[in-house]
Amino acid sequence: MTLTLTLAAPSYALLQADTTCWKCGESTRVATIWVPSFTDTSDVEGPEDEPEIGGAATLRHIEDLDDNVTDHVREVATWLKPGHSETAEATYWANHCPHCDALQGDHFEMGVNGPFFFQHRAEADALELIPGRGPLTANASASQSEWMDWIALRLGL
Ligand SMILES: [Zn+2]
C-alpha cells in the first residue's frame, strides 16, 4: 500500500540538540524536522474542504517521509528512524538513544525542560541547524510554537 503524503513544505531543516536519555542516563543527540510553512491536506475529503495552511512548525507523529528527506536523515541523523511507540501504539519516526536504543518520545522532547523547549531566542539560536535539500512531503502532523518562528528569522526566511 502506498500512503499519500498529505503534508507539504517548500523547504526544511534538521535541528539537533543534546539531551539525557530517560532510560540509561547517557548523553544523547536528538533531531527534529523543522519547516518554514506547510500545507496539510489530511482532512481534505471533498472539493469543498480547504487544506490547513500554517507557518513555521516542527513535524510530529511522522509516519512517512519522501525519499529525498529519508536519504538526508539517514546521512546526518542516523538515530532518527521509525520506531514503535507503545504510548501511541503506532510506528513513528523517532529519536533513539545511541547507547541503549530507547525511543525518545515526542512528549519528552517537546515538553517543558525538554531539548526542544525554548523561551528565549538565544536558546533557539544555539541549536545546531542542518539546512535541508529542497522541498519536503510527509505523513506527519505539524506542531507550531513561537520559537519555531525564530528559526525562520535565523535562516533569513
Ligand atoms: Zn539510553
TrEMBL record:
Superkingdom of origin: Bacteria
UniProt-recorded name of the protein: Uncharacterized protein
Biological source species: Stenotrophomonas nematodicola
Higher taxonomy: Bacteria, Pseudomonadati, Pseudomonadota, Gammaproteobacteria, Lysobacterales
